[in-house]
C-alpha cells in the first residue's frame, strides 16, 4: 500500500477505503485492526516496514507525519501501527510522536521529551512537532519526487523552505502551543478552521457510544487522509503555481528600470500572484529604493490596474498609497483631477486604481510618485 506511481503523489490518496469522507476510489486494500495497535496493509502486498505512533486521541502532527513518511522511498509500502506499548514500539522501523526519543539515525521522531528544542533552521525558530521532524528529514525527497528533480536542485530547496513557511510551521506551532502573536490580549475572534482544528474534530465525540479502538483507528485514518491531502495540495500549488510566479516576478523586478528611471514602478508581463514574492525578492535582489507601484492588465476587462505595494506581506497599509485627492473618484471626475485621460477609479484607501490603457496607468503611477515626493 501507500505506493507512489507516476509523477504525482495523489495516487496515494486513492488507496484509502470508502469509509473516508473524501470522494476517493476504492481499492483492494484491507484495514487490519487489532487492539490496541492499528495497521493498514494489503494481503497481496506485505508491508516492508512498520511505522509506529501512539494510540488514543490524535493530533494533526502525527497524522500528517505518518502520511508524509509513507511518501518516502525508505518507508513506502509501510504499515502504520498505533500503540503506546514501549516494547512493541521498540521493534518498529520508525516511531512518530511517542517514545520520548528524537534520533533520526534510528528514525525516532518524538518531540515531547524534556530538553527537546529542535527547530527547522534556515531562519525558522519554531519548535518542531513530529510532522516538522519528518518534514525536516524527508521533505526534500518528497518535493524532489514531485518536481522530478534531484534533491540538490535550487527549485527543490526553494519549495522546501516555502512549504515549511506557508504550511508546516503553523502545524508545528499549534501542536507546541505557540501563539501566533506576541501579545497578552485575548484574540478578537475565534478561528477553529485551521487544519489542526479540523483534524482534532475527527477524534471520537465523547457522546458517541462506540468508543472502540476500531472506531478510533478509522477516525485516525480519516485524519491522515485529510492532513495528507492538504499537504499534497500545498506541494502541488507551490510546484505548479508559486514557483513559476516567482520566476515571472523576478524578471519583472529586474526590468523595472525599463519602465521608469526611478526603479519604483514594476510592470507584470502577465498577471501573476506577485504579492507572494515581491518582498522576499526585493531583499534577495537588494532592491533599493523599494518598488512602490505594480502595473498589470486586468484580463477580465482588458483594462490596466496600478496597485500600491503594501508596507509588509501581512499589512494592508501601502508604502505610497495613491494621492489623497484622487481617492474615491471615478471616470471623468478622476481624469480631470489627475490630469490623465482614461482614468477609471481610485480606491478610497488609495491602494489601487485603474485606467483604460497601459499608458494611462503608467502616467498615474509616475504622477503619484511626483506628488508624494513633494
UniProtKB/TrEMBL annotation:
Belongs to the MYG1 family. InterPro entries: MYG1_exonuclease (IPR003226). GO terms for cellular component: cytoplasm; nucleus. Pfam families: MYG1_exonuc (PF03690). It comes from the Eukaryota. This is Metal-dependent protein hydrolase.
Amino acid at each position: 500500500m501507500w505506493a507512489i506511481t507516476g509523477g504525482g503523489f495523489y495516487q496515494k490518496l486513492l488507496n484509502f477505503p470508502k469509509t473516508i469522507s473524501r470522494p476517493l476510489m476504492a481499492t483492494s486494500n484491507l484495514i487490519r485492526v487489532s487492539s490496541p495497535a492499528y495497521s493498514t496493509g494489503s494481503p497481496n502486498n506485505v508491508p516492508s516496514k512498520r511505522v509506529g505512533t501512539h494510540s488514543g486521541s490524535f493530533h494533526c502532527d502525527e497524522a500528517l507525519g505518518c502520511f508524509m513518511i509513507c511518501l518516502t522511498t525508505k518507508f513506502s509500502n509501510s504499515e502504520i501501527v498505533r500503540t503506546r506499548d514501549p516494547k512493541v514500539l521498540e521493534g518498529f522501523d520508525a516511531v512518530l510522536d511517542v517514545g520520548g526519543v528524537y534520533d533520526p539515525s534510528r528514525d525516532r521522531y518524538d518531540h515531547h521529551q524534556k530538553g527537546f528544542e529542535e527547530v527547522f533552521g534556515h531562519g525558522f525558530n519554531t519548535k518542531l512537532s513530529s510532522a516538522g521532524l519528518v518534514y525536516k528529514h524527508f521533505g526534500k525527497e518528497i518535493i524532489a519526487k514531485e518536481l522530478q528533480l534531484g534533491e540538490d536542485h535550487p527549485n527543490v530547496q526553494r519549495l522546501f523552505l516555502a512549504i515549511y513557511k506557508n504550511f508546516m510551521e503553523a502545524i508545528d506551532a499549534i501542536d507546541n502551543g505557540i501563539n501566533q502573536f506576541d501579545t497578552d490580549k485575548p484574540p478578537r475572534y475565534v478561528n477553529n478552521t485551521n487544519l489542526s482544528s479540523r483534524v482534532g474534530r475527527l477524534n471520537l465525540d465523547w457522546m458517541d457510544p462506540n468508543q472502540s479502538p476500531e472506531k478510533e483507528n478509522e477516525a485516525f485514518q480519516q485524519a491522515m487522509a485529510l492532513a495528507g491531502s492538504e499537504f499534497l495540495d500545498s506541494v502541488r500549488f507551490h510546484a505548479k503555481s508559486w514557483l513559476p510566479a516567482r520566476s515571472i516576478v523576478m524578471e519583472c523586478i529586474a526590468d523595472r528600470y525599463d519602465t521608469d528611471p526611478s526603479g519604483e514602478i514594476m510592470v507584470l508581463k502577465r498577471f501573476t500572484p506577485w504579492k507572494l514574492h515581491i518582498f522576499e525578492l526585493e531583499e534577495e535582489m537588494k532592491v533599493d529604493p523599494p518598488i512602490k507601484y505594480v502595473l498589470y492588465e486586468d484580463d477580465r476587462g482588458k483594462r490596466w490596474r496600478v496597485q500600491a505595494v503594501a508596507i509588509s506581506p501581512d499589512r494592508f497599509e501601502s508604502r505610497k498609497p495613491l494621492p489623497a485627492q484622487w481617492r474615491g473618484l471615478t471616470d471623468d471626475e478622476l481624469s480631470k483631477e489627475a490630469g490623465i485621460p482614461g482614468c477609471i477609479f481610485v480606491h478610497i484607501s488609495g491602494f489601487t486604481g485603474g485606467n483604460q490603457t497601459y499608458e494611462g496607468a503608467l502616467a498615474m503611477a509616475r504622477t503619484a510618485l511626483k506628488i508624494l515626493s513633494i
